[in-house]
Design brief:
Layout (H helix, E strand, L loop, with lengths): L1 E3 L9 H11 L7 E5 L3 H13 L2 E4 L3 E5 L2 E9 L5 E3 L1 H7 L3 H23 L11 E5 L7 H10 L6 E5 L2 E3 H10 L2 E8 L18 H15 L1
Parallel strand pairs: 1-10, 2-3, 2-7, 7-8, 8-10, 9-10
Antiparallel strand pairs: 4-5, 5-6
Helix pairs in contact: 1-2, 2-7, 4-7
């Protein structure tokens, strides 16, 4: 279920957004795994996992940046090395295949570094025949979420949902078509759009905060 932007709803912080998701959640609950996209998705995911008594872990996907405009992404990469490309951006920037491969290789190194920092020697959690919800603190182009979805769709899940506090209408619709369940309390219809404008506290999270959320989740699960 999704809710249109009333122009009134803002979140105090990411954990408050996670609690709002939990209040509205109508998806599956049995054998549920919450996967947060770092860094902000872990704060949202922690609050949701606590409310749903679900396991929390991390899925590290990263934007593939255009070299001369790093804030602009032409897609994203998942931990298994699979790439999800944004054809509209690629048509404009004109990157060659070897450029894409080189950038993807560099970004994958950072993905692996973060996985090591966050998870240590623990393997990626088993997801076969499980119910999984991917969480982030918001969507923009949505390609880090799309990369996560594409990776997990090849892992024989029972059911796949996505829960995000806010996103633009076109991106939310794209994600909805790729999943079994979508929850997005705020769907923004106008431009320009910025996830940060829907939060009072949207500070840049660091690796230590991600690790803390994961350790707290593991202790809670016993």
């Amino acid at each position: 279920m999704v809710y249109r932007d009333s122009g009134l709803l803002r979140f105090i912080d990411r954990e408050a957004a996670g609690r709002e998701l939990a209040r509205r959640y109508e998806g599956r609950r049995q054998d549920l795994l919450i996967l947060g996209i770092p860094r902000g998705g872990l704060a949202v995911g922690m609050a949701l996992a606590q409310a749903l008594d679900a396991e929390l872990d991390v899925i590290v996907t990263r934007k593939l940046p255009v070299p001369w405009s790093p804030e602009l992404g032409f897609g994203a990469i998942a931990p298994d090395g699979s790439i999800s490309l944004n054809p509209e951006v690629l048509d404009v920037v004109g990157l060659r295949d070897n450029d894409i491969s080189e950038i993807a290789s560099e970004v994958l190194e950072e993905v692996k570094r973060r996985e090591q920092v966050y998870r240590g020697e623990r393997p990626f959690p088993g997801v076969a025949r499980r119910n999984v919800v991917i969480v982030d603190d918001g969507l923009a182009t949505g390609y880090t979420m799309i990369a996560a979805i594409n990776m997990l769709r090849n892992m024989e899940l029972a059911w796949l949902g996505v829960a995000i506090p806010v996103g633009p209408a076109d991106t939310v619709e794209t994600i909805r078509r790729m999943t079994d369940y979508l929850l997005c309390p705020i769907i923004a219809g106008g431009a320009p759009f910025a996830v940060a404008s829907y939060y009072e506290d949207f500070h840049d999270m660091n690796d230590a905060e991600v690790i803390d959320y994961l350790e707290r989740a593991r202790k809670a699960s016993g």
